[in-house]
Amino acid sequence: MTKRAAIEALCDDLLAECRELDRFVSALSDEDWTAVTPFFAWTVRDQILHLHQVDRFGLVSLAGADDFRALVTEVRARQAEGLELSEQVRREFAGSSHAKVLETWRQGYERICAELRAAADGYRIAWFGPEMGIASFATARLMEVWAHGQDIYDLFGVKREPTDRIRHICEIGVRTFGWSFRNRGLEVPKRPQVMLVAPSGEELRWDGESDEVVSGPALDFAMVVTQRRSPQDTRLVASGPAASQWLDIAQCFAGPPQTPAATGSRPPI
């Protein structure tokens, strides 16, 4: 597969992930939209607002680095006033209906998927941290839509049918092995091999730097690296101390170290 074809396939998967969550939340009642999910006590509305906010940041960055730098300055100034990102977007949409929030998110994700697909080869997206390539950014967006969607499904006790799109989340989970340790001020051990089974039955494998191994269902691995399940609530097998420690602290998203889901705090996989 060429690099261009891979980007287009990734954008297809991102769009499919967004639309799947869209279909689910579209059927929720107004009361459901104010229900509190297991993530940071955010409501369903908060989750969708967050997804829209980050999509919008991405669209600004795709428009040009100068525009994005101006946005960062504005966002940081409001944070200095005590308004974190989630509160900023809550206030912005305080007068909007849930239906309006949903439609705004929908228009944004459709647009960003199209713009990522059309971006020039080699384009680098300016971001709050290091710049990212198109593939890395699209993968991060897919991971976040999937993870925040999981919070919503868990709230209502719904088991969604896993798809092989989950391999993208596993990929970013493996790539952030070192980050998970450095983010906590820990020495980075040699990375274990990762051997997973996708929902379709396809075997997914990442070579490691040691004889240690993490193995099991790709779904379970994605749940752990996004901190949506405790390793103890999964079918993952970690052979070796570094492998076990990694699963306990894995964090495939940016930001300060977060406390993973406590054992038994979420529905069974």
Automatic annotation (TrEMBL):
Secretion signal span: none
Location of the Mycothiol-dependent maleylpyruvate isomerase metal-binding domain: 15-152
Source organism (scientific name): Novosphingobium pentaromativorans US6-1
Protein name in UniProt: Mycothiol-dependent maleylpyruvate isomerase metal-binding domain-containing protein
InterPro entries from the UniProt entry: CHP03084 (IPR017518), DinB/YfiT-like (IPR034660), Maleyloyr_isom (IPR017517), MDMPI_metal-binding (IPR024344)
GO molecular function annotation: metal ion binding
